[in-house]
Amino acid sequence: MIQMMNSAKRFFENNEDILYIYGAGNPGKWVAEYMMKCEINFEGFIDKANNIQDCCLFGKRVIHPNELKQYGDKRLRIILAVGNPREALADLHCYAMNNNLICLAPLYPDFVRLGESNTQNSGLIYDINELLSYFRGRLFIGEVPTILSNSCGGV
């Protein structure tokens, strides 16, 4: 069973399940760096392009999605940190559909296109920065800074 969510707060807080990052490219690296700064432990990375045995990134293993079968019916959390989360979800359906997965996808309402009848977009946009804002909020300590500027652009 695969469940989807886009609330990082609900995904991370009060949860001790095994955690993977799907994607070993730049978005996956950004998520990993922020998670390490916030002291959130994760098992490793999942990447379909991984064809090298014993590949590592940030000291964590990079596995192919079909290796998730080793977890059986244990619940796993997966962050879809790739440019096309729908494709990653299709990979998970193909390789790990018998696993119990909870996926965090950085898909958020696009209020500009929400009323359009484009079924491909379905009113959602990929926004990795929205996902990373959860970590930035956890790292920010202290009062909100005051910024004084002579123009509305802050220049």
Kindly describe this structure.
The chain is α/β, with parallel strands linked by helices and 155 residues long. Helices cover 26% and strands 23% of the residues. It is built from 4 helices and 9 strands; from the N terminus they run βαβαββββαβββα. The strands form 2 sheets. It has a 7-stranded mixed sheet with strand order 1-7-6-2-3-5-4, with helices on both faces. A two-stranded antiparallel ribbon has the order 8-9. The chain starts with a strand and ends in a 16-residue tail after the last helix. The model has no long low-confidence stretch (mean pLDDT 82).
Give descriptors for this structure.
alpha/beta; 26% helix; globular; 155 residues; 4 helices; 9 strands; seven-stranded mixed β-sheet; single chain; two-stranded antiparallel sheet
Strand order of the largest sheet: 1-7-6-2-3-5-4
Distance between the termini: 50 Å
Describe the sheet with the most strands: 7 strands, mixed
Number of strands: 9
Name the helix and strand elements from N-terminus to C-terminus, one letter apiece.
EHEHEEEEHEEEH
Question: Could you list the spans in which at least 5 consecutive residues all have pLDDT below 50?
Answer: none
Broad structural category: alpha/beta
Estimate percent helicity: 25-40%
Task: From the alpha carbons, calculate the radius of gyration and give it in angstroms.
Answer: 17 Å
Number of helices: 4
Proportion of residues in extended strands: 15-25%
